[in-house]
Design brief:
Elements lengths: L1 E3 L1 H9 L6 H13 L2 E4 H12 L9 H9 L4 E4 L3 H9 L8 H12 L3 E3 L3 H4 L6 E2 L1
Parallel strand pairs: 1-2, 1-4, 2-3, 4-5
């Protein structure tokens, strides 16, 4: 089972060629099992990127997110109290971004492989990552 980092979700939906071969293979396998997870924090991050004009989508952001929500193989993961606490307690000094910490904590708590290009996360032994 996998968790898509925010950029991996955006690229998977909009331009899959930006994903690595290994990431695409894992996503294709997860499609069959209907087990692609996306953190609710990624929804927030996408909406913020659009609001700040740092991301342009082909449709209104709410419609774009609802389209993803309607996919039967995608499961959105809320930020639970346990995930929030785990994010604070992560011993990752190089990871200061709260969204990255919450996404990382989600992957750890649910024992998911995080699909991310973020090199900092690939260096951490606490989490399984693929790019």
């Amino acid at each position: 089972m996998i968790l898509l980092d925010t950029h991996a979700w955006i690229w998977w939906v909009s331009n899959p060629d930006l994903l690595s071969t290994e990431a695409r293979v894992l996503i294709d396998q997860a499609l069959v099992k209907r087990k692609i997870h996306i953190s609710a924090m990624s929804v927030w991050e996408v909406a913020m990127l659009v609001a700040k004009n740092r991301l342009q989508l082909t449709m209104e952001v709410g419609d774009w997110i609802r389209t993803s929500e309607g996919l039967p193989f995608v499961q959105f993961v809320p930020v639970t109290n346990a995930i929030a606490l785990k994010a604070v307690r992560l011993p990752l000094k190089s990871l200061n971004d709260p969204v990255d910490r919450l996404i990382t904590a989600t992957a750890i708590m649910l024992d998911l492989i995080l699909i991310t290009k973020d090199k900092r996360l690939h260096q951490e032994a606490l989490i399984k990552t693929v790019w």
